[in-house]
Amino acid sequence: MSTQYDTIVAPYNEMRKLPGEICETYNMQEALAPHIQGAKVLDLACGSGHYSRLMISWGAAQVVGVDISSGMIFFMVEDCTIPTEFDGGPFDIVFGGWFLNYAPDAATLANLFRNISINLKDEGRFFGVTPYPTEDPRRHNETELKSKPLFWDQLWIEPIRDVADGVATRVTADIKPEKVQFDNYHLKRSIYEQAAKEGGMKCELEWKPILFPPEDSHLLERKANWEAEVEEFLETPHFSIIVVGKQ
């Protein structure tokens, strides 16, 4: 797993204030709402603890966070790509906000799901933020770049090279105090679904539809000026929320 985040903690946290990130957080809260109350959660690739803190505020009883980057760490430093039974488990929920997209191929992705599976209770669920589900990741990224609302122009994702199971991408956030760039992967939808099963997740993987936050006055004011662009973006967003049960 990459440690490219060691030196960008402050600007990375600033990214969470961008419109696309606010939309992402809203959709994850909606997905977690029926399951988070009183839950014991493992947050893989937790970064500086953005979602860890939110899940506590949303009702989780306990959150254990793990990340390979010493600069981003919130709780403990571990390589999340290596299947490890973490202290405190098994967990009701394993969470991965932009975790699976660091797998460059199907074999690595299956290994990440294996790490998820061994830390879940039999009735537990995984919730993740991933790239949008498609069988043509390059085309989707190119389409999303064109359809992105103008007021979201501080964050963009570009395909940089093709790989066997999808495309390598570069994320750029033009924020203060400095521009942030980091690389990851957008693998095919079928690769995700196959890898989940190979990794021990027996339930069908669910891709949640992306909704616009209905009560965020900051975003609603902007949406009013770019209604068509927002609707087009919601059809081809840069992210998805996935949910899959262990058994």
Task: Tell me what the structure shows.
There is one protein chain. With 247 residues, this protein is of the alpha/beta class. 33% of the residues lie in helices and 26% in strands. The chain is built from 8 helices and 10 strands. The N terminus is likely disordered.
- Note the total helix count: 8
Determine the oligomeric state from the structure: single chain
Strand order of the largest sheet: 3-2-1-4-5-10-9
Distance between the termini: 27 Å
Shape: globular
How much of the sequence lies in strands comes to 25-35%
Mean pLDDT: 85
Number of strands: 10
Write the layout of secondary structure elements.
Blueprint (H helix, E strand, L loop, with lengths): L8 H7 L3 H14 L7 E5 L5 H8 L4 E6 L8 E2 L13 E7 L8 H13 L1 E11 L6 H11 L7 E9 L2 E8 L6 E8 L1 H10 L7 E3 L8 H9 L1 H9 L4 E6 L2
Parallel strand pairs: 1-2, 1-4, 2-3, 4-5
Antiparallel strand pairs: 5-10, 6-7, 7-8, 9-10
Helix pairs in contact: 4-6
Give a concise summary.
The protein has eight helices and ten strands. By secondary structure, the protein is an alpha/beta fold.
Task: Pick out its properties.
seven-stranded mixed β-sheet; 26% strand; disordered N terminus; alpha/beta; single chain; 10 strands; 247 residues
